[in-house]
Amino acid sequence: MAQEDVFKKIISHCKEYGFVFPSSEIYDGLGAVYDYGQCGVELKNNIKRYWWDAMTLLNENVVGIDSAIFMHPTIWKASGHVDAFNDPLIDNKDSKKRYRADVLIEEHLAGIDDKIAREVEKASRRFGASFDEEQFRTTNPRVMEYQAKRDEVHSRFAKALNDNNLEELRQIIIDTEIVCPVSGTRNWTEVRQFNLMFSTEMGSTADGSTRIYLRPETAQGIFVNFLNVQKSGRMKVPFGIAQIGKAFRNEIVARQFIFRMREFEQMEMQFFVRPGEEIEWFRKWKDARLRWHKAMGLGDAKYRYHDHDKLAHYANAATDIEFEMPFGFKEVEGIHSRTDFDLSQHEKYSGKKIQYFDTELGQSYTPYVIETSIGVDRVFLSILSGAYSEEQLENGESRVVLKLPAELAPVKLAVLPLVKKDGLAEKAEEIMNMLRFDFRCRYDEKDSIGKRYRRQDAIGTPYCITVDHETLQNDTVTIRHRDSMAQERVPVTELNSIISEKVNIKNLLKKIIN
Predict the structure, then answer these.
(1) Most distant CA pair in the chain, distance
(2) What does the CA dihedral 15, 21, 26, 29 come to, rounded to 10 degrees?
(3) Residue 369 CB-half CA count within 13 A
(4) 479 has which bridge partners?
């Protein structure tokens, strides 16, 4: 099945089973804004809990805050967002559609990578165990031709980004014959910059109001609270401050479902270190964050690092962790070495001294910062993409199953009476009442047991408990495992401990540190 078709099915599945709905749908929706349904909000909360615990439980020197969305407008002047928070946009004159110029070029480069990968895959099948991939990549004429083209475009692209050369970005699009996906033409406008911040007014009257911004990131709320946290918590460098919260960007080119939205949620951690030690900590956090992703078991090969072609003016190192979505490898998290730019800027604009006195060194300095920034919505989408599966069963039937990590699944177990008579429903409700205090449970007695299993498979419920006539005789039930569909008989009295062991988030946390 084409990956584009898989993505459409995932989007449809999200709506049908209560994960994600188009916002304001009865009013024909609002572009690039989505609501999380009854299953989606549980999965999302579990993702946030996993991240929060990984930061604050596994690291004694990381604490959390929750800063306000509304902030003093000068903060965004100091951070550079007022003057430089822009996307390079280009329009196709025939389709009237607008695109990010850098994304068009990145997708072109990804297309060349795909061609190379197909050549390698064909050769691997042809030569079998004797295949030497490295030698093939450096000697095969077609692969070498593709790679030379890619290197040339990539070199021009990186230089244009770093020079902020909008004319060169357009010229690359022209020279590589990139076409509009809608019109199929190359009738492009000039590239222009567009600021992404939403603004509003705070105050009761027009004359007395102040122009403020909806925050485009959560990081600045951490930076302006650096001294508050450091002094009140008696924190010693190195230490980190974590935060989960909403951010807002007026994305003109918002697409690919919840991957790029105008209202989204971030999980960010700013880690403050001594100047000169930032690159060492950058490498440590880069490794730690990839282990966090891989611990979910979606497949190590689905992740990769992507080092930035263009570094922000304040950064001296930056990389993305990308996940293989149905529409290609895309960023889910960024790790950045931001130097001392943020604290220095806020010191300059606020007129307040923002420094740390290091008792071991006997001196004050402005700490450098390592940032880990992850989009909740993008991780949500990566998990759904990695978990979605369509299976053909031995009996000729098929099923759609979300093979979500049991620790993150929105519903941990379903309690199902085999039939509604003979006291089975009453016994099932008794078991449900016993377990509901510890787990998110579902009770279902409608339709055949097979159909009920399929419903639970579709929302990713890892375990189903079936109450049958034998339960009334010896107080045992059947546990059905979602992925294998295997069943085992266990005593009712052991259910709590069995399920607890399998769905506890600490299982994921242990994988990170092992």
Answers:
(1) 79
(2) -120
(3) 26
(4) 465, 488
Q: Which range has the worst mean pLDDT, 158-162, 293-297, 371-375, 454-458?
A: 158-162
Task: Note the pTM of the prediction, 2 decimals.
Answer: 0.83
Q: Do 491 and 417 fall into the same domain? A: yes
Any idea what the CATH number is for the domain that residue 149 is in?
3.30.40.230
Question: By the 8 A CB rule, do 333 and 372 touch?
Answer: yes
* Residues near 106 by beta carbon (within 8 Å), at least 6 away in sequence: 157
- Residue 42's CB is within 10 A of a number of other CB atoms, namely 20
Beta strand 263-273 pairing with 303-307: unpaired
Residues 110 and 131 in one domain: yes
Is the same domain home to 102 and 227? no
Asked if 219 and 330 sit in the same domain, the reply is yes
Tens-digit pLDDT profile for residues 91-143:
999 998 888 898 899 889 989 998 998 898 889 888 888 888 889 999 999 99
Compute the distance between CA of residue 198 and CA of residue 214 in angstroms, rounded to an integer: 6
Cβ 366 vs Cβ 314: under 8 Å: no
Which pLDDT tens digit goes with each residue over 370-421? Answer: 999 999 999 999 999 999 999 988 877 889 999 999 999 999 999 999 988 8
**% helix / strand / coil in the chain, to the nearest 5?**
45, 25, 30
Handedness of CA 467, 469, 473, 476 (dihedral sign): negative
- Per-residue model confidence (pLDDT) at position 193: 84
> Alpha-carbon distance 402 to 303, whole Å?
19
β-strand pairing of 263-273 with 62-64: unpaired
- Taking the CB of residue 319, how many other CB atoms lie within 10 A of it? 20
Are 166 and 214 in a shared domain?
A: no
Q: Are residues 504 and 439 in the same domain?
A: yes
Q: What pLDDT score does 134 carry?
A: 87
pLDDT at 211: 84
- CATH code at 499? 3.40.50.800
* Residue 9: CATH number of its domain: 3.30.930.10
Q: Alpha-carbon distance 217 to 473, whole Å?
A: 59
Q: What is the span of the domain harbouring residue 99?
A: 86-194
Q: Are residues 357 and 435 in the same domain?
A: no
User: Is the Cβ–Cβ distance between 50 and 508 less than 8 Å?
Assistant: yes
Q: What are the residues whose beta carbons fall under 8 Å from the beta carbon of 110, sequence distance 6 or more?
A: 328, 329
Quick one: 14 and 102 in the same domain? no
Task: Quote the Cα angle for 155-161-167, to 5°.
Answer: 95
